[in-house]
Amino acid sequence: MRGNFSFLSGKWKVLANLGETAEKNVHQDPHTTIMKLRLFAETLAQFVLASENIKEVQCTTINL
User: Fold this and answer.
1) Assigned domain for 64 exists
2) Number of domains comprising the chain
3) DSSP count for the chain of H helices, then E strands
4) Is this model's pTM higher than 0.70 or not?
């Protein structure tokens, strides 16, 4: 059975893996799902920044 994230595997394998891992663990380990989806969102944001040639800003709590 194909998961909801399998369409990403052609171009963005890392996103597909993170999404599929989150999907597999949603009922048995929701904490893992949350962690994997956070990594998914952060990785996706990095891909968008790179594709738009935008420099990633590194903030720390001291700078906030």
Assistant:
1) no
2) 1
3) 2, 0
4) yes
Within-domain flag for 58:
no
Cβ–Cβ contacts within 10 Å for residue 48, how many? 10
Can you say how many angstroms the Cα of residue 48 is from the centroid of all Cα atoms in its chain? 12
Long-range Cβ pairs for the range 4-13 (8 Å, 24+): 12/47
Expressed as residue numbers, the domain containing 20 is: 6-51
The letter for the amino acid at 1 is: M
In this structure, is residue 18 part of a structural domain?
yes
With 0-12 / 13-18 / 19 or more C-beta atoms within 10 angstroms meaning exposed / middle / buried, residue 58 is: exposed
Residue pLDDT, tens place only, 38-55: 999 999 999 999 999 999
